[in-house]
Amino acid sequence: MTAKDIATVESKVRAYAQWIEITIFVVNSNFKVEGAYLKWGKFHVPGNKDKEISPSQINGTIIKDEDSYTIASCGRENASSGTEGGFSLYDGDKLVFEYYWDCPWSGSNSDELTVKDKENYTVSKKGGGSPSGATGNIFITVVKKS
Q1: Choosing a second label site near 13 at 20 to 30 A (CA), which of 31, 41, 76, 111?
Q2: Distance of alpha carbon 71 from alpha carbon 86, whole angstroms
Q3: What would the pLDDT profile of 83-95 be if each residue is shown by its tens digit?
Q4: Which domains can be identified in the chain, with CATH numbers?
Q5: Could you tell me the CA-to-CA distances from 99 to 73, 114, 122, 128, 140 in Å, in that order?
């Protein structure tokens, strides 16, 4: 392995250390993911940071009643940026919540779950909370009230 190969591997490891995986569980309705975007980093197949996917592969995804879906993102190799982005969840045409995260290369992690309809949906979030490094696994549960 050459010095260049080692530098490439080290760069990938540092960038990939800034990551988030958001798993959304839904109950009592089918929900749709829309508006997925990134300011920094890349979306990838959950569990495989080398398999990049585009926002269009996430947007429009239907999460069926009593099922889950995971959105994964990390920093890019050779870029000291981490990952920053967000998405929205809809029940038909009704906006249920917006979620935003910032997992920077340096500085403090942050995220925000904004519930748009508390009267008709119960939304809870667990996980994350690390002030630096990877944000890690986030679990969001959405229940449509009967």
Answers
A1: 111
A2: 10
A3: 999 999 999 999 9
A4: 3-144 (2.60.270.50)
A5: 13, 6, 15, 13, 10
Residue 22, exposed/middle/buried by CB under 10 A (0-12, 13-18, 19+)? buried
Max Cα–Cα distance, the chain, nearest Å: 62
* Residue whose C-alpha is closest to residue 83's, from 8, 127, 21: 21
Contact predicate 69/33, CB 8 Å: yes
Residue recorded with tokens 């992690």: 109
Closest by Cα among 53, 54, 56, 59 to 32: 59
101-112 residue pLDDT tens: 999 988 899 999
